[in-house]
Amino acid sequence: MNETNVANSMNLTFSARSENEAFARITVAAFISQLDPTMEELNDLKTVVSEAVTNAIIHGYDSDPLKFVKIEASIEKETIHLVISDEGNGIEDLELARQPLYTSKPELERSGMGFTIMENFMDHFEVTSESGRGTRIAMTKRIESKKALFN
C-alpha cells in the first residue's frame, strides 16, 4: 500500500474544562499544519474547534470537569476530517439549535452563532445528537496548500 494513501490520524480526549478549549484548538492546529494551510484556513479551523469544544463543555456537560470531550482528526490527501463529540445532555431540538442567534443559555451571554460559524467555515458539516446521550459534530475541509500555490 502506498504510504501517501494512508490517512494520518489523531485522537484527543480531555476534561470538559473551559481552560482546555485553547489546548484543543492549538493541538488541532499543530496537527493540520503539516498540510501547510493558509492563515485564513488555519484560523477557520481553530475557530470551528473552539466553537464545537465550547458547546460540548457548556451545553453538553454544563461545565462539569469530571466529563470528557473527544476530538478525532484525520488527514487524507489535502482534506482534514474532524469529529468533536461529548456524551452529555444532547440537544432536544436540533433544528431550533441550528438557527442563527438561538442559545439555550442566554444568561451566559452566548451569541448563538456556533453552528452557523462551523457550517460556513467548513466544506461539510453534520451534527447528530440524542437527548441524554450526547452530541457529535463531523466536519471536513479541503486545504489549499500554500506549497501548491507556488509550484
What does this structure look like?
This protein is an alpha+beta fold. 34% of the residues lie in helices and 27% in strands. The chain has five helices and five strands; from the N terminus they run βααββααββα. The protein has helices spanning 20-32, 39-60, 94-97, 114-121, 146-149, and strands at residues 8-15, 68-76, 79-86, 124-130, 134-142. It has a five-stranded antiparallel β-sheet, covered by helices on one side. Strand 2 (68-76) and strand 3 form a beta hairpin. The relative contact order is 0.20. The model has no long low-confidence stretch (mean pLDDT 86).
What structural class should be given to the helix and strand makeup? alpha+beta
The termini sit apart by 27 Å
Question: What's the rounded overall pLDDT mean?
Answer: 86
Please give the oligomerization state of what you see.
single chain
The proportion of strand residues reads 25-35%
| Largest beta sheet: strand ordering | 1-2-3-5-4
Low-confidence stretches: none
Largest β-sheet summary: 5 strands, antiparallel
Report the principal-axis shape: globular
Number of helices: 5
